[in-house]
Amino acid sequence: MFLSLSLSMPLYAFDFSQWDAILKKNTRPSNFEGIVYTGFDYAAILKSREFDKLVGGLELFSPEVLRGREEKLAFWINVYNIFAVKLVRDHCPVICIKEVGNFISPVWEVPAGKVGGRMYSLNDIEHKILRPMNEPSIHFVIVCASVSCPDLLPEAYTADALRDQLKLQTNRFLENMGKGMRVDREKKTVYLSMIFDWYEDDFKDAGGNIGFLNSEWAGSRNIPSDYAIKYLPYNWDLNTVR
Length: 242
Fold this sequence. Notes:
By secondary structure, the protein is α+β, with helices and mostly antiparallel strands. It contains 7 helices and 7 strands.
């Protein structure tokens, strides 16, 4: 195992260049049951030494040395996405990530990977680290390996580019009418991803769901507050390349 630190980077930064290369090589536009999404080629990394080195580097890296909110956000977003891929890889073949867990111990609670010698589940990262940082846009960049999840960005998140990356991925998700959002002006209804229902409290500071949409969606900023909100079906099938 190797500690993935680049000599050209500050000593507190983790080098996600291996993850960046894996994403660029293994993500492709896909379509399943009418939903357009970014597919990931899980089969291609089943015996990937690069992925093993990436996971090994995280196990040796101490997150306590991370500095600043953007550095921490970018790090843990990447780690969540890496560990979601790892769970699928470790349990292949699966049709749905939920197959990894069971009723008593759902996949979100299954030990997913180590950072700094400590084991984390996906729930640990999402609910104990990322959500308390009060950044609602995280819900459009952490990817639970499913078709209706937000898409994997084909590059690693970085502290310097994080603001732009969050804005880009939020808008990509909202513009995806199959799983993100669809506005019916005639019926005065907004159809949203179930993400907005599950994490409704996280959008309160932005004026609620519609307030968040009007502030973040580049396509339109005039969804009236009296529009009804309904939720789109959520497809849990694996976000594999199709």
